[in-house]
Amino acid sequence: MENTYEQEVVAAESQHRNRLDKCFFGKESALKVQYDKETNRIYLGVGKKGSNNDWTWGNAKLKDVEAAEIIRVIASKTEAASFFHSFNNKNTKIWINKNEDSLIIKVDDQSKKLSPAEQEVLRIFLEEVILQSFSNTREARSSETRS
Questions:
Q1: Three-state secondary-structure class, residue 114
Q2: Residue 2 pLDDT level (bands cut at 50, 70, 90)
Q3: Which of 18, 30, 80, 94 has the highest Cβ tally under 10 A?
Q4: pLDDT in tens, 23-75
């Protein structure tokens, strides 16, 4: 009989290999970006810390071109970007604005301000996510043609 703990570790390691996560925490707010390789989806969330140290999150799924638009704002190729998502009768608005050195990302009524160094890490992370998304799409297409 296999050890349950070993099964849990293997499952956690497998899940970890299938997902990239990055979170930028501040005192009162946080930004998280996730890429799930299994579903080939990019997620963006902005959280706010409550009075009981609990977090509330505004979350949205991003398309690769929206992630690229965020990169363009970080690189100062454009001053702002915004996206509107509708899913299960819930509407989500995402704004990205750059003023001088700061970048502000807002999902609905939750926002997070990023420093220049955090912006650079976010840019690198999003570039990697887009590359992995392309690679994952190519692998899926290749598997379909072999089947």
A1: strand
A2: very low
A3: 94
A4: 999 999 999 999 999 899 999 999 999 989 899 998 899 999 999 999 999 99
Q: Are 129 and 20 in contact (CB under 8 A)?
A: yes
Reading the block at residue 105, the tokens are 């990302």
The closest of 68, 126, 70, 63 to 98, measured between CA atoms, is 70
Q: How far apart are CA 104 and CA 115, in angstroms?
A: 9
- Closest to 44 measured CA to CA, from 58, 27, 24: 58
Instruction: Extract the tokens encoding 24.
Output: 């930028």
Is 124 strand, coil or helix?
A: helix
Q: What is the structure's pLDDT at 138?
A: 63
CA contacts within 13 A on the Cβ side of 67: 26
User: Which residue shows structure tokens 């899940």?
Assistant: 15
Confidence check: pLDDT of 143 > 70: no
